[in-house]
Write a structure and sequence with these properties.
Layout lengths: L5 E11 L4 E11 L5 H14 L4 E3 L11 E4 L5 E7 L4 H10 E8 L4 H8 L9 E5 L2 H8 L5 E9 L2 E5 L4 E4 L2 E4 L5
């Protein structure tokens, strides 16, 4: 019998002063049996950073044809494709062909090594941005994971803080690749 996903609920208040985006989101996250709390929280962080009315959690680990999150316009065209972890080169090139923008949020200690291995082959992907989350940060986010979460995300001047009732985590993303024109 296949294991079922574990459901997490998050009330997320976002104050993004850089984009002038101020919203409350009630989110349901299905954590795949093979997914860690750390990865799930990085997915939640990716949502907070890119939040919009059309951004949704996709099937990700459950379906190789979908990202972790995506945003489509009203015609169904993919505006934003978001991957979490260390996707392979073919997957990223395919995503770059299907979406206007592709973002990767890597978070493992070996992410710089992963990027050194594939980065030069992805230079032609002008719509690809790759960010690395320091291990200490992703582990601090992991400690926030609960089946029911109340979170506040504040973004100002390129700085990001995620807060729950017991701690605040400052998130300093490291750019591994910037997209041309973005």
């Amino acid at each position: 019998m296949a294991l079922k996903s574990t459901v997490y609920k998050a009330e997320l208040q976002i104050s993004d002063m850089d984009r002038h985006y101020y919203e409350a989101h009630t989110l349901t996250l299905a954590r795949h049996p093979s997914e860690t709390d750390e990865r799930m929280m990085v997915r939640l962080l990716a949502f907070a950073i890119n939040a919009s009315e059309n951004l949704i959690f996709a099937k990700g680990l459950s379906d190789v044809e979908e990202p972790d999150l995506w945003q489509k316009d009203y015609t169904g065209a993919i505006q934003l494709w978001i991957e979490v972890g260390q996707p392979d080169e073919r997957r990223l090139l395919k995503a770059c062909g299907r979406a206007d923008r592709v973002l990767v949020y890597s978070y493992a200690s070996n992410s710089p090594i992963w990027w050194q291995g594939i980065g030069n082959r992805l230079e032609r992907a002008k719509n690809l941005l790759v960010w690395n989350l320091p291990v200490a940060t992703s582990q601090a986010l992991q400690k926030m994971a609960q089946r029911s979460m109340q979170l506040q995300c504040t973004i100002q001047d390129g700085q990001l803080w995620l807060t729950d009732d017991s701690q605040t985590v400052q998130v300093d993303l490291v750019s591994l690749k910037q997209a041309g024109g973005y």
